[in-house]
């Protein structure tokens, strides 16, 4: 081989290596591109601005589309979120400007014009993804043609030109916008066929914004804007509330409880026996509640959901789960619910076996359907409504089968396994006082000491501490605001648990002081009653919003009912566990004296 041939071969090898390194350094996976590189763009869905759940596939409207239309392979979470990413004719290569590029020529028939006009009337938007960045634009606009005192005439126009404004920093894309040109429109007021030439332009500009902060702007995108100051106000309000409650209970312990603990169960004097209050029912306070299997199932599912929520926050803190990744939240919820079912089985069986060694299987069965059953029923109804609308939130048959198989072959086996472990490692119920054979009659109580009044008090105070953060959460769920401050949400969740525990202890003490020993179920109801206020606030939120239609109404109240039911089970479990610790403490302290 001559020196010239060797040199040519070396140059070829070097060029191949450089090409290889270039392809490795720039790709959609690491979001780094070179000039002229293809950047993936997908169209997703369309829908009315005021109804976030009412979305349809992008090509339900007669836009220009490729032939054939290729749908992107989606994860379980993306399908559950209603995302349907498909290919598009738009070509937005990295840092390549385009002016009035023709997308397609299309003949719109009368039916096509009517579809576009209905979309403009309902303020339809479209959503696309460019380099995993979501962006939105409107289909058309409405203008007043002429009007008199008797009648106002409106004209409807379709945008036929879209301008894409893209910001980049170095070799990374930072921001993208899509703007319909109001000067290039087609009149679609009448059902008359029309020839349309759809065009688009691409404008690239530099920015100093860092790639790591490119998602920050989405935190400001909401139909119901909420500022960060409100978060801190909510946090300070909650801290003040919990400090006041701690001070109240401290005063209660210092004055009332300490005096009670100095008094013995009985001095032999009938007068003294009438004055001991909660001590007088020591033989009934640890009596097992009615509907024992149901009670154990509530404890099991409540503990499971608490574990699930805490696991979600851990994933967020570790950076594994973040709000910008499509469908990750839904995927995490489904997987974590299946994995934590073992917690429900173990807690249910172990708690049941403290009362009786037999019948724990029934409690575990109830735990398996206590939350999944209502969720399946509500989800099925919502899916029927979504199918009737042809919306993207309707689950395909394949996705439904995946969820059923996941529940059958992962959730149920883990639930049973947890139940078996709970049975094998069972222990007796630790009761400081012996339970009498026959229950003592509860004296008549005034109306304000009944369960509904205590539930109102036990639910209203925690709700008042979290109401501002709840507003932000609902704006994220049923608006277009992306929740970017999960740390504050986690702090509020911890405060909610602490307030619920403190109030449950106080209300249980008040109940025992009037010789009412049926505190087991009441502590669950008082702890979980915050969920009732949360659902009531959902009704208020819906009436104050611009949402309308059967589909949006069904999804808002259906999914909020599931969420509030989960909070009822979680907070009810917290209320009972904290009350049980308190009751054991005071009766153990009296017994030691």
UniProtKB/TrEMBL annotation:
InterPro entries assigned to the protein according to its UniProt record, in alphabetical order: EMP70 (IPR004240)
One of the Pfam families matching this protein, by short name: EMP70
Topological type in the membrane: Multi-pass membrane protein
Domain of life of the organism encoding this protein: Eukaryota
Subcellular location: Endosome membrane; Golgi apparatus membrane
Signal sequence residues: 1-26
Name assigned to this protein: Transmembrane 9 superfamily member
Organism, scientific name: Gossypium barbadense (Sea Island cotton)
Classification lineage: Eukaryota, Viridiplantae, Streptophyta, Embryophyta, Tracheophyta
């Amino acid at each position: 081989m001559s020196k010239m041939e060797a040199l040519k071969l070396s140059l070829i090898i070097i060029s191949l290596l450089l090409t290889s390194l270039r392809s490795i350094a720039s790709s959609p996976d690491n979001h780094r591109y070179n000039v002229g590189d293809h950047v993936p763009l997908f169209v997703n869905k369309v829908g009315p601005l005021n109804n976030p759940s009412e979305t349809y596939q992008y090509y339900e409207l007669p836009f220009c589309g490729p032939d054939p239309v290729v749908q992107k392979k989606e994860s379980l979470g993306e399908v559950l979120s209603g995302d349907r990413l498909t290919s598009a004719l738009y070509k937005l290569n990295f840092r390549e400007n385009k002016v009035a590029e023709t997308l397609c020529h299309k003949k719109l028939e009368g039916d096509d014009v009517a579809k576009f006009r209905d979309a403009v009337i309902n303020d339809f938007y479209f959503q696309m993804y460019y380099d995993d960045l979501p962006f939105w634009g409107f289909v058309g606009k409405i203008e007043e043609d002429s009007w008199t005192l008797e009648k106002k005439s409106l004209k409807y126009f379709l945008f036929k030109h879209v301008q894409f404004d893209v910001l980049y920093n170095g070799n990374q894309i930072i921001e993208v916008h899509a703007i319909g040109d109001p000067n290039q429109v087609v009149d679609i007021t009448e059902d008359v066929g029309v020839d349309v030439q759809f065009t688009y332009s691409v404008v690239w500009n530099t920015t100093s914004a860092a790639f790591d902060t490119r998602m920050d702007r989405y935190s400001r995108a909401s139909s119901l804007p909420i500022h960060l100051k409100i978060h801190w106000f909510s946090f300070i309000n909650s801290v003040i509330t919990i400090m006041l409650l701690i001070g109240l209970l401290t005063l209660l312990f210092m004055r009332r409880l300490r005096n009670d603990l100095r008094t013995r169960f009985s001095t032999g004097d009938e007068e003294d026996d009438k004055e001991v209050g909660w001590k007088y029912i020591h033989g009934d306070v640890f009596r097992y509640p009615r509907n024992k299997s149901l009670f154990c199932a509530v404890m099991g599912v409540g503990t499971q959901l608490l574990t699930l929520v805490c696991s979600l926050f851990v994933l967020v803190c570790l950076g594994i789960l973040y709000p910008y990744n499509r469908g990750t939240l839904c995927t995490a919820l489904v997987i974590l619910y299946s994995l934590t079912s073992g917690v429900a089985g173990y807690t249910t069986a172990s708690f049941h076996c403290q009362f009786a060694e037999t019948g724990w299987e029934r409690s575990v069965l109830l735990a398996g359907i206590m939350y999944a059953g209502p969720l399946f029923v509500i989800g099925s109804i919502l899916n029927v409504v979504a199918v009737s609308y042809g919306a993207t939130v309707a689950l395909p048959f394949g996705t439904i089968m995946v969820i059923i198989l996941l529940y059958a072959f992962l959730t149920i086996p883990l639930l049973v396994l947890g139940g078996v472990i709970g049975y094998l490692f069972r222990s007796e119920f630790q009761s400081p006082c012996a339970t009498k054979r026959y229950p003592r009659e509860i004296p008549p109580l005034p109306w304000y000491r009944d369960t509904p009044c205590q539930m109102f008090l036990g639910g209203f105070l925690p709700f008042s501490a979290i109401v501002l953060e709840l507003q932000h959460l609902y704006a994220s769920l049923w608006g277009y605001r992306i929740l970017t401050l999960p740390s504050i949400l986690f702090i509020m969740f911890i405060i909610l648990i602490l307030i619920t525990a403190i109030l449950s202890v106080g209300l249980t003490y008040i109940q025992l002081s009037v010789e009412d020993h049926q505190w087991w179920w009441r502590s669950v109801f008082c702890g979980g009653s915050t969920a009732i206020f949360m659902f009531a606030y959902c009704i208020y939120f819906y009436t104050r919003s611009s949402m309308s239609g059967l589909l949006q109404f069904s999804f808002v109240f259906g999914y909020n009912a599931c969420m509030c039911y989960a909070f009822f089970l979680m907070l009810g479990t917290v209320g009972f566990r904290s009350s049980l610790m308190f009751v054991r403490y005071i009766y153990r302290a009296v017994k030691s004296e």
